[in-house]
Structure formats: structure tokens, C-alpha cells
Amino acid sequence: MNYRVLAVAVAAVVVGGCAASQSLLPPPRPLIIRSGARLQAEPERMEEINKWVPIQLDSISTDPSFWIITESETEPVLLWEGLAISNDSATIKVQAISNEVARSYMIYAHLHLMRSLGRQDVWMAEAPDADGLDFERAVLKRVSDTWFFARSSFDAIPYEPLDELLYSNENGFLDAYILTMRPEEFEAEREALLAANPAALDEYLEWFRETFRRLPTSGTVGSG
User: Fold this and answer.
1) Residues 176-202: pLDDT tens digits?
2) Of 110, 135, 158, which residue constitutes the final position of a domain?
3) pTM exceeds 0.70, yes or no
């Protein structure tokens, strides 16, 4: 897939809808999943996200100093499972669902590549020196915001891997989401969370079952 063409096309969806004025953003629509769980974005928050999403997509599409390469898949791929970084390029696998899904995956890849290239502070002012779980949390918050923006302001079709991230983040469960989905990568942080609150991950999974009527896409179930 030609990532530059895709990035330009996706950026045009955002910029084209609000180039003249941020007030031209569509009113945020409520998100409702099958269980009836709802999310409602505030217009002001969507305006703030719109300040950086087009800029980041423009860098992905025009900056000649790095490459973001997408590889289309027929099945769902979790963000971190399909990412590979080599020198000045990042390759990320993404299910061929929609441009909006691809955009969120490209932003994930871009932030990880910028860290590798020593440009983390340029793109993540809120976490310029973050590492480990702190860095991944900051990146996933950005991706969650990107997807919230696409779903709420531009009516992107639902996509379960990103909806799981979004709903977890918006309900205060981002750390539990990460430590459930990636227990081996963040083993020490998971153990620390369970030492402080032995029921933390079980509480997250109970909320997840109520919200999605199923278990998470992957990861370790429960606190065992």
C-alpha cells in the first residue's frame, strides 16, 4: 500500500471539512455499541484533537526523512502486534477496513518511530521523556483520541480493536487495558498494580464484559 497517498487522502477528510474554520467540524455524534454503552464527545475536545491530527498526518505524508509503511491484512491486528521499526522506517500491519482505521494505526507507528529517531519531544509534548509503560500509555491515549475523533466527528464505522481501546480509555481503564492485553511486556507494572489492588484487573474484566458482552480480543484474562 502507498502510505503517502493514503495519508494524504485521510488528511483531506479532516482538513477538507474544517480548513476554513474549526467551527466547521460536524457536531460530535454519540457513539453506541451493541450493549447500549454510550460515549459522547464534547465539541471543544474534538476541536483540540483537530489541531494536531492533520499536522501529524501531513508529516507522515510529506516528511522525506522517514517512512511509514502499511501492510494490509484480512483479519484484525492489534496495534502493537503488527509494528516493526527499522532505522528510519516503521511498518505496521492493519486490517483493510477503512481509511480512518489506517490513520489511527499510522499515528501509532509514527509516534513509536519518532521515539526511535529521537523526536519524541517534538510530537509528544505531554510526555517528552516518557519510557516504558508511561510512553505506551501516552501513545495509546493519542490513538484513542484519534479514533474518537474519527468515530464521533466523521462517522467512522465501528472497529472492535480500536473501540476496545477507546471505551477503556474513556472509562478510566487504560492501564488495566494495557496490562491485560500485554502482561508479559509489562510484567513488573502488572505485578505492582495487583499488589496495590488485587482486584484491579478483575474489575476491569467485569466492566469489559458488561460493556462488550464478551472478553477482550486477546490478552490474559483475570488477575491470575
Assistant:
1) 999 999 999 999 999 999 999 999 999
2) 158
3) yes
